[in-house]
Amino acid sequence: MNGPFLRILLRYIAGYLVFKGFMPQEFADMIANDPDVAAAAGVVLAAVVEGAYWLARRFGWRT
Questions:
Q1: 51 burial class (0-12, 13-18, 19+ CB within 10 angstroms)?
Q2: Are 9 and 42 in contact (CB under 8 A)?
Q3: For all residues of the chain together, what is the average pLDDT?
Q4: Is the model's pLDDT at 17 over the cut of 80?
Q5: pLDDT greater than 70 at residue 2
Q6: How many domains does the chain have?
Q7: Is pLDDT larger for residue 3 or for residue 18?
Q8: Of 16, 19, 39, 42, which is most buried with the most CB atoms under 10 A?
Q9: Tell me: the pLDDT tens digits for 31-52?
Q10: Which residue from 10, 11, 6, 15 is spatially nearest to 42, judged by alpha carbons?
Q11: How many other CB atoms are found less than 10 A from the CB of residue 54?
Q12: What is the sign, positive or negative, of the torsion defined by CA atoms of 15, 45, 33, 2?
């Protein structure tokens, strides 16, 4: 997932969390507008995907 799409996704997620009252507006603005936060989120997402793939291979699940 490249940067612009990730920032759009993070903006929607942050907006939802603000709407539900789980996150202050200032923090949501930081997430939605900071490219470093988007890059960090991309690294986390990649790690989660690779971890899921590793678990699937280890336990013989479909890959």
A1: exposed
A2: no
A3: 77
A4: no
A5: no
A6: 1
A7: 18
A8: 42
A9: 777 778 777 777 777 788 788 8
A10: 6
A11: 11
A12: negative
Per the structure block, which two tokens stand in for 33?
């507008």
For 18, the 3-state DSSP assignment is: helix
As a 3-state breakdown, the chain gives helix, strand, coil percent values, each rounded to 5, of: 85, 0, 15
Residue with tokens 């470093």: 36
Residue type, 57: R
Residue whose token pair is 């603005």: 29
Smallest CA-to-CA distance from 22 within 33, 14, 34 is with 14
- Residue-number span of the structural domain to which 21 is assigned: 3-59
DSSP letter, residue 23: S
> What global pTM score does this model have?
0.53
At 23, list the tokens.
């996150």
